[in-house]
Amino acid sequence: MPAWLAHALHVPRVPVPRGAMVRGLLGALPLVMAVVAAEPGLGVMAALGGLLAAINDRPGSRRTAGLRLGAPALAGTCGLLLGSGATALLPHPAQPFLLPLVLTVLGLFAGAVSAVGPVASGVGTQILVTTAIGAGMPLPEPGWQRALAFLTGAAWLLTLRLLLPSPDDGARHPYRLGTERAAVASVYTAIAALLDATGTPAAPARRSALTAALDQAQDALLGPRLHRFTNSSAERRLHARLDAALPLAEAATALFWAGRPLPARTVRGPLALADAARHDTVPASVPAPERDAPGLRALDASLLSALAVFDSTPAPTTRTPQGARARLRAATRRVSGSAGREYGIRVALSMGAATAVAQTLHPEHWYWLPATAVFLVKPDLGPLASRILCRVVGTLVGAGLFVALAAAAAPVPLPPESGLVALAAVCATLVPLAMRHFALQTGVVTLLVLALVGLGGDTQATWNRLTDTLLACGIVLLAGHLPLPGRAGNVARGRLAVASQAATDYLGHVLSGSPDLPGRWALRRAAYRSLAQARAAVEVSAAELPPLARRSAGAAELTAVLERLVDTTTAAAVHADDAGTLPPHDSARLRALLGELGNLDHDRTPVAH
C-alpha cells in the first residue's frame, strides 16, 4: 500500500473527548436561542463561530485554551468584517475580478503567518474562511451584526471551555491548576515508562513519548498568567517540579542510550513523584536505584534533588519578557522564511483560483469553494493526497446522509427549523469525536454546515457543495504540485535546519564543559523539541504523492542521525559529570556521528555545523 493511501486509511486510537463533546452540545445554545427569536441568520453565524472554535478545542490547560481558541476567533471576526466590507465597497460589476484579487493577497499573508505554528495556522485559516463567507454568504443581516454573532458563538464555547470541568484532560482538580498538574505528572510517568522499557525494542518509542510529555507540560505552564510572573505558591511549585524533571529525563535518556535492562525498583521513584505531582503532595521516601553505572548515579542524584524540590516552596521570581521577544523574532523569521513564502504562495494561488472559478459558476453562492480550498491547503492536517481523498469521501458521505435524513423527515409534521437545529446540535456534539480522522471530521462538518445553510435559506446547497468540493480538490492538488522558484520541500527542510542547529548548540555546550546545568537542560529540551517537529514534518512529506515525496528524500535518515547525535550527547554529558571529563568512547561515538552527518547530501537537506 502506498504511503499516501496508508495515511488516509489510518485512524489513530485516542480517548473519547467527553468534555469537548458536552461543550459542543451546549455550544448549540446560541443557535437555538436565535431560531426561537426568529433570527436564524444570526444563529447561523453564532453556530459557525462555535464550530470553528470547536475545531481548535483540543486537550490542554485552560490558559493555553484562551489563546488557542480566542486568537482565531478574533481573526474570524475581522475576516467577516473584511468580507462584508469588501462586498459593500467594491463596485458590483467589478467584484468577479476584484474579489479574487483581494482573497489572493489575503491568502499570501495568511498563508505565510500560518507557517509559524498551530495557533497562527488557526488564525490564518479562520480569517480566510470568514472573509469568503462574509463576502459570499447571502444573509439579510448587516456585516457588523454577523461579526458580532460569530464572536458571540466563539466566546460562548470559550467560556464553556474555561468554566466546565474537563475530565478528558486527566485533571483530578478541575479548576485549580488540575490540568497543569496532570501534565507535569505525565512527565514523571513518561520517565518511569522509559526506564521500564530500557533495553527492549519499546525503548525508542518511550523516549519519543517522554519528549512529547515534556513539550505538552511546557506548553501547559506557559499560559498568560504563568508567562511573566508566577504569582502563587502553587504555580511556583509546578514550575519547580517540572524543572526538577529535566535532570531525571537526562539520566533516563543516558540509560536508554546504554541499552541495559534495569531492575524493577528503578521506576518506583519517578512513579512516586508522578503521584505527588498529580495530587500536589510531598512524596514519601522512595527506593534508591543501584549506583553501578554513571546513568544510575545521575538518576539517584536527580531523585534526591527532586525530593528536595517537592518538599519546599520556591521563592517568588519575576520572569523577564526576553523569551517573548525571542519567540516574536523566531515567528517573524518563519513568516519571511522559505517555508512561509512557499506556503503563502500556494494558499494565495488556491484562494484566488477557487474564488475566480466560483464567481464564474455561481456568483450568488460562491463562498463554499474557496472556504473548502483553505482547509485542503493546510499542511498541518496531513499529506495533501490524504487530505483530498478524505475530503472527497467525507463530503460525499455527509451530503448523502443529509439527503437521506431530509427525505426521511419529509412526512414528519415538524417545522423545518426544528429538524435542522436538532441536526446541527447532534453534529456539534460529534465534531470533537470526529477530529481523530479528517474524513470523519469532513463528514460531520458537512452535515452541520448543510443544516446551517438550510437555516439561512439556501435549499439547493447539497449537491452544489459536492461539486464545489471536487473543484477545490482539483485546484489545491494543482497548486500543491506546482513547481515554485527555489528549492522544494521548504517546510521539512526548514524544520530540519532548526533541529540541526539546536543539536549543534547542545553539542557545543556539552563539549565546552560549561558548568551551567540549567542552560544545558534548556538546550537539550530545545534540541528534542525541534527534532520531534522535524520528524513530524518529514513523515508528512514522505506520505505525499511521489512527485512531492521525492522532495524529502533522505530527510528521514538525517532525522534519525540527528536523534542519535542528541541521545549520544546526553549520555556523554551524564558520563562527563560522573567522570569529570568526557570519556574516550563517547568522544569516538560523537565523531562518528558527525562524520555520518557530513556524508549526507547537504544540497538536499542542509545541516548546520
Structure description:
The chain has 609 residues and is mostly helical. The protein has helices at 3-9, 18-26, 29-36, 40-55, 62-89, 95-114, 118-136, 143-163, 178-197, 203-220, 224-228, 233-258, 268-279, 294-310, 322-336, 338-361, 368-377, 384-409, 416-434, 438-455, 461-481, 490-512, 517-542, 546-549, 555-579, 584-598. Helix 4 (40-55) crosses helix 8 and helix 25 (555-579) runs antiparallel to helix 26. It is globular. Mean pLDDT is 84; it is low at 603-609.
Provide keyphrases for this structure.
single chain, 609 residues, mainly alpha, globular
Outline the fold blueprint.
Blueprint: H1 3-9, H2 18-26, H3 29-36, H4 40-55, H5 62-89, H6 95-114, H7 118-136, H8 143-163, H9 178-197, H10 203-220, H11 224-228, H12 233-258, H13 268-279, H14 294-310, H15 322-336, H16 338-361, H17 368-377, H18 384-409, H19 416-434, H20 438-455, H21 461-481, H22 490-512, H23 517-542, H24 546-549, H25 555-579, H26 584-598
Helix pairs in contact: 1-18, 2-19, 3-4, 4-5, 4-8, 4-19, 4-20, 5-7, 5-8, 6-7, 6-16, 7-17, 9-10, 9-12, 9-13, 10-12, 10-23, 12-14, 12-25, 13-14, 14-25, 16-17, 16-21, 16-22, 17-21, 18-20, 18-21, 19-20, 22-23, 22-25, 23-25, 25-26
